[in-house]
Amino acid sequence: MEYTIRPARITDIDRLAAIGRSAMTASDRGSLDAADLLRQCVYLPHASVLVAEARRELVGGALLVLRPSVTAGGYVGAVDFLVVAPDHDADRVTESLLEELLRSASNKGCSTVEASVPSDPADLARLERAGFASAGVTLRRPVSAAGSAARRP
């Protein structure tokens, strides 16, 4: 099956939040509803909300949020939300979403992308295959900012 990754639209948020709700525990949830937060992030320049589609059906999504960091030498992107519908290929959807998130992080000037260490060993293996490595309580992956000397051939 072919998966297409694209920026989320406001009309995607309820379905994306529904997929995410099934993956989160009660302790993962803050005071605001996930859909409300995702709706706000769709319009923020320091966030990227992406969705994965198969045959025009939403099958997953991810959120990258940026923060400035003096010690990292630029922005740090945080993978805050990454979900895949249970009836789809989690490896392929996750790989496609992470590839596009890393491209977005690079284009937004990030030097590093971080992710929380997932409790599921399969999720951890997916992140490690994407180049993330343990860095204490998080996983990190360096990226080259767009236009930097490291990205030029």
Q: What is the domain tally?
A: 1
Task: Please give the number of β-strands.
Answer: 7
The strand line-up of the biggest sheet is: 1-2-3-4-5-7-6
- Could you please say which CATH topology applies here? Aminopeptidase
Round the mean pLDDT to the nearest integer and report it.
88
Structural class: alpha+beta
Q: How many angstroms does the end-to-end distance come to?
A: 33 Å
Task: Work out the helicity level.
Answer: 25-40%
| Low-pLDDT regions | none
The shape, in one word, is globular
Element string (H = helix, E = strand) = EHHEEEHEHEE
Biggest sheet architecture:
7 strands, mixed
CATH-derived architecture: 3-Layer(aba) Sandwich
Question: Strand content of the residues, in percent?
Answer: 25-35%
Question: Count of helical segments?
Answer: 4
Given this structure, which CATH class is correct? Alpha Beta
- Specify Rg, calculated over alpha carbons: 15 Å
Query: What is the CATH homology-level superfamily?
Result: Gcn5-related N-acetyltransferase (GNAT)
Short descriptors:
Aminopeptidase, 153 residues, single chain, alpha+beta, globular, 7-stranded mixed β-sheet
What's the SSE blueprint?
Elements: E1 4-7, H1 13-23, H2 34-42, E2 47-54, E3 57-69, E4 74-84, H3 90-107, E5 110-116, H4 121-129, E6 133-135, E7 138-142
Parallel strand pairs: 4-5
Antiparallel strand pairs: 1-2, 2-3, 3-4, 5-7, 6-7
Write a structural description:
The structure is a single chain. With 153 residues, the protein is an alpha+beta fold. The protein has a single domain (4-151), classed as Gcn5-related N-acetyltransferase (GNAT) (Aminopeptidase), CATH 3.40.630. Helix content is 31%, strand content 33%. It contains 4 helices and 7 strands, in the order βααβββαβαββ. Strands 1-2-3-4-5-7-6 form a 7-stranded mixed beta sheet, with helices on both faces. α1 crosses α2. The protein is globular and about 40 Å long. The chain starts with a strand and ends in an 11-residue tail after the last strand. The mean pLDDT is 88.
